[in-house]
Amino acid sequence: MVRNEIKNFRDIPNIGKAIEKDFFLLGMKDPIELVNKDPYQMYDDLCSVTHKKQDPCVIDIFLSAVSYMKGGSPKKWWEFTKERKIKLSCK
């Protein structure tokens, strides 16, 4: 179940001012846009937009936000670290 009712990024678990700003930098205006996003591509895009390598933990936060907006249960961002490490070790 997609979470259409969420209108502010900071209403998503793990999202504070800094990550909300990152979403804006990536051109997003509404949390529902996260449903169709690839967290790994978002991270790469953020690194490009800011011209600096971001902390890889940002991917975990992006993973948690996308999962939640797609209807996943709220989880702490670090619960996605293992998934990221497995995925990136395969690249």
Task: Please tell me about this protein's structure.
The protein is mainly α and 91 residues long. Helix content is 47%, strand content 0%. It has one domain (9-89). The model has no long low-confidence stretch (mean pLDDT 95).
Structure summary:
With 91 residues, this protein is mainly α.
Layout of secondary structure:
Elements: H1 17-25, H2 39-50, H3 57-69, H4 81-89
Beta-strand percent range: under 5%
Rounded mean pLDDT score: 95
The count of strands amounts to 0
Low-pLDDT windows of residues: none
Radius of gyration: 12 Å
Count of separate DSSP helical elements: 4
Query: Biggest β-sheet: count, sense, barrel?
Result: none
**What is the CA–CA distance across the termini?**
30 Å
| Percentage of residues in helical conformation | 40-55%
- The SSE order reads HHHH
Shape type: globular
Number of domains: 1
Secondary structural class: mainly alpha
List key phrases describing it.
single chain; 91 residues; 0% strand
